[in-house]
Amino acid sequence: MTERASTRDHARVAVTVDLLIFTVRQGALHVLLIERGHAPFEGQVALPGGYVRTGEHLDAAALRELREETGIDGSRLHLEQLRTYGDPDRDPRGRVITVAYLALGPDMPAAQAGTDARHAEWTPVKAILEGRINLAFDHEVILREGLERARFQLEYTTVAAAFCTEPFTIAELRHIYEVVWGLTLDASNFRRKVTGAHGFLIPTGKHRTQEIGRPAALYRRGPAQLLSPPLLRSSDVHRSSPNLLVLH
Amino acid sequence: MTERASTRDHARVAVTVDLLIFTVRQGALHVLLIERGHAPFEGQVALPGGYVRTGEHLDAAALRELREETGIDGSRLHLEQLRTYGDPDRDPRGRVITVAYLALGPDMPAAQAGTDARHAEWTPVKAILEGRINLAFDHEVILREGLERARFQLEYTTVAAAFCTEPFTIAELRHIYEVVWGLTLDASNFRRKVTGAHGFLIPTGKHRTQEIGRPAALYRRGPAQLLSPPLLRSSDVHRSSPNLLVLH
DNA sequence: ACAAAAGTGTTCCGCCTACACCCATGC
DNA sequence: GCATGGGTGTAGGCGGAACACTTTTGT
Lengths: 248, 248
What we know:
The structure is a homodimer. By secondary structure, the first copy, chain A, is an alpha+beta fold. In chain A, a hairpin with a 7-residue loop joins β8 (201-208) and β9. Chain A is elongated. In chain A, the strands form two sheets. In chain A, strands 1, 2, 3, 4, 5, 6 and 7 form a seven-stranded mixed β-sheet that branches. The first copy, chain A, contains five helices and nine strands; from the N terminus they run ββββαβββααααββ. At the A-B interface, β1, β4, α1, β5 and β6 of A face β1, β4, α1, β5 and β6 of B. β1 of chain A pairs antiparallel with β1 (12-25) of chain B. The structure holds a DNA duplex.
């Protein structure tokens, strides 16, 4: 943070926030995309986002854009900064840097069309990774980096619970891990690990009866942020595990 | 990344990069600080950094400021984005957001005064954490977050080697862990872990004779970025471990 | 010979994996 | 009863912590 009165080459640039919002629905990882209504990249899909306003916090801008473009209330989501992307050529309109946010949330009631009437749609991440859908700008890079971060965070933090609607069962939580990692985990050992991790889960005492089988105990998120010991994706993989998602 | 032709409240803001550069010297963790030559915060110490120029990559701006303000060639450092700080009130001059970078490097030959003649000085991190030195702007927040990140990264990545000048001994590498974590580790088990981690260390075949004791084998960094299994700071703590650094 | 630091061997214990088994429900 | 998923028990094995021990140097 230097003041260089002499060399005043410092540009004033436009700053946007972009949101990479993941959820698990229908057994697959989905990301929320909007269809662009204007140039550049008109008609293409992109991550929701928009310009930061004068005097607005970055986090506040992220929450506002989330609400405006998708109708989602961000207070129930896990939201954190991913990275700032500042390639001078990343936006054809000129110098625009973007602060990308990673958001994890439960399957939303319905992604409402935004105030400015563009669709907001849940899209399987797999379709983008396999090249069947192209994203505007450098948004595919953001998605890949965010996906790797999310997978990593599941190992060392308790964010997986952010994907579940409270109260939730342990099987639902395990399903999150299985879908995001593309693995099948041993149900018994998974249970022991997460119930043993201090502050991860709080039993509600209630149970939910599924269509079939024994009713499952319901839990809420505990106060713990970090998960110790970590839940490594390399270990405890169940036999016959199909790779649901293409890695890298 | 939305174009909102209607509501053009989006501000064009100044963007800076700030550098949080850690090194280990004289048995303690140090951070590189400069003394500010102008208002605001004139005379106070701050992280090195400066404005991003027109058409300049963020990473390039970080490397340039590093060279200009401290005389350090960044190509030998580990450099990565930490986080972007965008509180509208963080700079009294107006809206300035900063992209903070975390850099880890070996003890530098000497922190040269920068081109604009301000001092650049290695300062013990402890002195800042204990409140004996106050940093300008929100730089203490950046330092605390970066320190936590560095400590975390030592567990799961191979960045600790970035603190060492190649070639280095295992004892030197262990010393890095001990200083950053503020613990004493068991030398034998540490050796086995790091030599066993695939791609962490490459033996050079050479040895270095210290002033006393058996000569130590010399290593270079291997290609591995991630460390598996992780080297957890909670475990393998040697008896009688003084906490060299105040946590949080 | 002794001190000091590098490096190896070995025991013990805890945890984690794998899998068998029991429980609670709907049909 | 039987199928299905929730939940518990347990044996075996792997790996890590602790620490004794050997090696290689300088004085």
